[in-house]
## 1
Amino acid sequence: MSEQTPQRVPPSPTPDPSTRGFWEAAKQGKLLIGRNTRTGKVHYPPRPICPFDDEGEVEYVPASGEGTIYSFSVMRAKVPYAIAYVELAEGPRVMTNIVNGDFDALRIGQKVKLTFVPSEGDGQPVPMFTPA
Amino acid sequence: MSIRGKACIVGAYEHPTRKAEDKSTAQLHAEVALGALRDAGLTRKDVDGYFCAGDAPGMGPLSMADYLGLDRLRHVDSTDVGGCSYLLHVAHAAEAIALGKCNVALITLAGRPRSEGVATGTAPRAGNPAQPDVQFEYPYGAAIANMYAMCAMRHMHEYGTTSEQLAWIKVAASHHAQHNEHAMLRKVVTVEDVLNSPLVADPLHRLDCCVISDGGGALVVTKPEIARTLKRPIVSVRGAGEAVKHTMGGTIDLTYTGARFAGARAFEEAGVKPSDIKYASIYDSFTITVLMQLEDLGFCEKGEGGKFVADGNLISGVGKLPFNTDGGGLCNNHPANRGGITKVIEAVRQLRGEAHPAVQVKNCDLALAHGTGGSLGTRHGSATLVLERE
């Protein structure tokens, strides 16, 4: 696949006060997930209050960037794109796009790895995945 | 305390329009309101409870109450869980009536996405940035069609469900829609027609998707004492259930819906089981929506939905579970991109014996209506009603 295939440019995310750290980390090539310091349980998207347990603080930790496709769909738009849930090695299923791959070869269970794609406007990098 | 037997649907009206270029959204709400009240044999002066959702223009119920001239309201509810809000409104109206908070509840839905040229299924919506999920979904082009498509893809992977099986759901809807003079798509289609229609979002084809239409509908709910004074057949609310399912911190499972919980709650309250149901209105934004909800409501085992819907099993007079005999969202209409109220309306028609004769279920005394609102691919509300003819 190839550089000739036009690739969808994602719209820029709008960070809020609780997610600025997430998007700043993306500029450093890191995908942060939330981790409960008491239970060790991880969640996504990361948020200051753990969605699972009342007890424990949340710290943002970088994911390894390895994962597998849980599900996907190729939108047959003017510039087609593949949306997916990728199951990270750490556990959480994250919504994302699969880029730089042959859409017809995508499979559930396929191994993928983290990459970043610049978004519209300021070019804020957005975490995405590509076949491993 | 239960709502069983505490409230009846006495008025139901579906707007005949499918394209309302010359009408406002508020006007459509007003027209369906009057239609349902006329059907019940009641007037606006009888209405003391009003229910609407996000399709109603204005702040909650305020603008529509003003526009409609409802001046005796003592109970309002604008709970919005997307397309199934109106099923949930029937349940909430029954609760309010049971508690004496109102006697005559009016529920309205209307909208004109077709006239407004909304690309409902395929255009990602930016949403409100304060909505905490938007920044983690909008950049990826999350729309309606590709979210439901991911459910279908995973269901196929886990259970071997096929596109042919999904297509049977559209085929059944089209068999019913041919008898509905107002339906947008009246042509009977085949499995091959569905499979040969262009892919919108793999594995969903264009004919796996519902229509985009203008229109609306309204319902009137009241207490049994008032219902018995009216001339219409009595349709009683026997049980109701609601649920919310979401991404659960990154543990989302795309193979089931909130119907698993809403349905169980409704069946428990009604004291009946899926095999007792003679007719089912099942939310049909996409074919996969129907298949997953049928499994989750217990009409078949999980994973067996594909086999259950195949070979015409949902066609009235042919199969075991006649569904969406008006043609549903897949063929008839999907007003305001919200198919909840039409699900209740067709169930009421079936229970009254007023469905089209070609699709009327014989001795239809117990029906189910179920809806989904929001997105099965992320977060959604589910609402189930079990309705019976007295």
## 2
Amino acid sequence: MERIVEIIREKGASTALIIGFFVFWELFCLMGNISDILLPRPTQIIAALIKFWPAIWPHTYQTLYTTLVGFSIGVAIGLALGVLIGSSKLAYDTAYPLLVGFSSIPKVAVVPIFVLWYGAGTVPAILTAMIICIFPIVVNVATGIATVEPELEDVMKTLKASKLDILWNVSLPRSMPYFFAALKVAITLAFVGSVVAETVASNRGIGNMMMIASSSFNVPLVFAGLFVLAGLGVALYVLFSLIEYRVTGWAHRKTDLAAS
Amino acid sequence: MSAQGREMRAGTAVSPGATFIEFENASITYGRGARAVQALAPTSLRIAEGDFVALVGPSGCGKSTILKMVGELLKPSTGHVFVSGREIGAKPIRIGMAYQNPTLLPWLNIRDNVMLPLKIVPPFRQEFRSKRKGEFRDRVDAMLTQVGLAGFGEKYPFQLSGGMMQRANLCRALIHEPDLLLLDEPFGALDQFTREELWAIMQDLWLSKKLTVLLVTHDLREAAYLANRICVMSSRPGRILDDQIVELSRPRNIDMTFQPDFVALNQRLRALIVGARGGTGIVNHAPGTA
């Protein structure tokens, strides 16, 4: 019972803050008599969202599609590179400087190159989403794999375990908490990538819709696009948090222990 | 360097029984050129099958190095190491290993942790899928019961105390019926009473399984309680200074560790190690002697 009260108090505070934020926004616009061309009120944005939903939906689908495809490819490549770099000192020393170099390029800057290669549309958005989420995954997975206790490695080696045995039974499960931490960062970054690409060069997607809406001064629709993006981002973040908790619950044992 | 030119004198004592492990002038040197450090001077050592040998000596004397060479984790810089009569790598023998750090996998429960070697070591590996829920499971549970962990199979490592984790660690080192058990200070991080309890368990396991055990320890009582034979090593570069058989009857118990002959053995070992430490300690701290 005490625990339930505790949960209500915890969740209650953050829910109140969210509601309070929107109420303040609404009141601020009303009191300050701010034009909806500058900053529409939340109620106007919701109205726009409902009114234009048939038009918004295909764009939402497009953005979700490019983001998830880019994210999946990025995760696969990131995981593979992370395993490679993490399990070999040589690969780490060789590849790391190049990787840091790539990652320090602002990803927006490569969109024109993708457009040059593949034309405007879906492919540049997928590639941008992909490239933006590779780096955090590589770094985290490599860290998880490279920090296996040397004693444990010795034990495995005296059992004549192959590199694959060690990777499968020890290194990979051990790097899962790092991997999921990276996934949560990567999924939000992937949205940044796809929307930026759509804004620059596409005729579909939320980014493109917002560009068109802003050029016709339909500001509530621009903000509706933001709301959609925020909603998608939060939904995927929550999804990965839930999977993370199921897969790597052992790494969060302190909270478990407190509960039991 | 005085140690390099000198011929090896010690380490020629042989315990009874067929030779299982043999060091033939094996040495280890880390690094190259001017920065090379000899961790282990050329050492010859024979260990009989089924023997229980303890290696004691000051920190950094190469005890663990010897263990790692036997476990094929390190190759000798010079000389040879033979296990089971042939050079390492020639014939597969099963080895179990336990360190001071239990290194149980936090995402597996105790039963699955102990079962890990069965998943990797042949011939168990081939049958793992079919037997993991049956025969192997029973075997793990029997083993856990033997070390006093009955009913803890479903628990996770973080729910166990240090002593219990170390028991599980011992089970993991023994579950695949190794021919050779390598222990590197397995009880070092435990309190006195838990440690003594685990000595008794270790002795029972050894008496029931008759495998060869090589134990590295700082604890002289532990060495004298558990081992048939104790090798005392010098500071770096490690050499075997003294090699003696422990003439105490089995099974041993804690009361025996207060008997005069046990205490005398301990004092003798202690004097040897103090001597080994003192000698090089002064040399290391005096500038310009190298």
